[in-house]
Amino acid sequence: MEKLITADEVKDVLQYDRLIDVMEKALVLFSKKNVVQPVRTVLPVKKEGGFFGVMPSVCEDSDILGVKLVTFFPNNTQRYGVATHNAVIVMFEIKTGLPKAIMDGEIITTMRTAAVSAVATKYLAPSGTRKLAILGAGVQARSHYHALSKLQKFEEITVWSRTFDSAKKCADEIGGVACHTAEEAVKDADVIVTVTAATTPILELKWVKPTAHINAVGACQPDWQEISPELMRSSVLYVDSKEAAVRESGDVILSKAEIYSELGEMISGEKEARRESLTILKSLGMAIEDSMAGQLVLDLLNEKSHQSKY
Ligand SMILES: NC(=O)c1ccc[n+]([C@@H]2O[C@H](COP(=O)([O-])OP(=O)(O)OC[C@H]3O[C@@H](n4cnc5c(N)ncnc54)[C@H](O)[C@@H]3O)[C@@H](O)[C@H]2O)c1
Ligand SMILES: O=C(O)[C@@H]1CCCCN1
Asked: Among 33, 36, 94, 120, which one is least packed by beta carbons within 10 Å?
């Protein structure tokens, strides 16, 4: 094994511009069936109310063989003052199967999730987009602000969370305004991001603009919801993986909403980008996103070591 890569090293080289392009490529490769990737295995860790996920993927066309091991312990921040999502990614040589790197996966999880939402937003946000609303004020709230700001400068940004104090802290950091209710935050928003650990709906159809684009990023269990069933059924629904959405997403399963398209099918033009309709990306996170982001980190570290030689 050649490399052990820390969170600081990942943070140092990974930037959104390159990552957004790589995520777009990963989504297309997945939907064109060039990726071998089972729906992730999720083991409950009952005492702490947590989960342990195993996410392997292979893409021979892109020389990718990797796996992410990820834990999601929703009470971590409140109980222990540490992040709720933690991960490592292991990358192997496609030619020999030899391990080539083990790297921190927390930063990659944080950034690749927001980068995928940025890809969806690039295609699905209504023309003349000016307002971004973020529901939730944790790690993903911040990463989504940074990734989406690569697409455009929003004239108005609002943040709502369970407590006003946490919304205010996040809003102050990103130059937004904290709101006391989710309804107030999403009023007239063109792009909405839901990044909470909620298990029941926090966003209602009657609050949202008829052309809004929503990146629905939380609620990764079959009995968890973040979006009201009416809103799910009234929107044009995009997902990262159809196979995973009908197995893992409570928002999809409980509402019985019809899936219109995978993001990869839309990017490659097989399905329309319905920019002027009410659209939702139900994002669950895919193993190939992690493996391709992991390979990008290796490429960037390689580029950096060459730069420092000359
Ligand atoms: N789709 C993906 O690829 C992907 C990847 C990573 C994380 N996620 C999901 O995104 C969500 C946010 O992740 P994070 O890393 O920012 O977590 P975090 O723990 O940093 O933040 C969670 C936020 O949700 C708020 N919250 C918790 N319970 C709530 C409730 N009942 N109602 C409203 N708000 C509530 C918390 O106050 C906090 O602001 C989680 O559901 C996580 O599993 C999805
Ligand atoms: O794709 C991911 O990495 C995360 C793991 C935790 C649950 C939500 N999705």
From this structure: 33
Dump pLDDT digits (tens) for 46-105. 999 999 999 999 999 999 999 999 999 999 999 999 999 999 999 999 999 999 999 999
With a CB cutoff of 8 Å and minimum separation 6, the contacts of 46 are: none
Residues 292 and 198 reside in one and the same domain: no
Substitution site in 109, 194, 221, 251 for ligand 2 pocket (most atoms within 8 Å of beta carbon): 109
Q: 258 and 296, same structural domain?
A: no
State the CATH number of the domain containing residue 202. Answer: 3.40.50.720
Tell me if 140 CB under 6 Å of ligand 2.
Answer: no
CB 18 within 8 A of CB 296: yes
| Ligand index nearest the alpha carbon of residue 57 | 2
| Together in a domain, 58 and 140 | no
Q: Tell me the CA–centroid distance for residue 1 and ligand 1, in Å.
A: 34
Residue 306 CA to ligand 2 centre (angstroms): 33
Ligand nearest to the backbone CA of 114: 1
Cβ pair 236, 280 in contact under 8 A? yes
On whether the CB atoms of residues 102 and 71 are closer than 8 A, the answer is no
pLDDT tens digit string along 237-280? 999 999 999 999 999 999 999 999 999 999 999 999 999 999 99
Of 96, 64, 61, residue with least CA distance to 295: 64
Q: What predicted TM-score, i.e. pTM, was given to this entire model?
A: 0.98
Do both 164 and 254 map to the same domain?
yes
Burial of 151 (0-12, 13-18, 19+ CB in 10 A): middle
With tokens 């009657």, the residue in question is 206
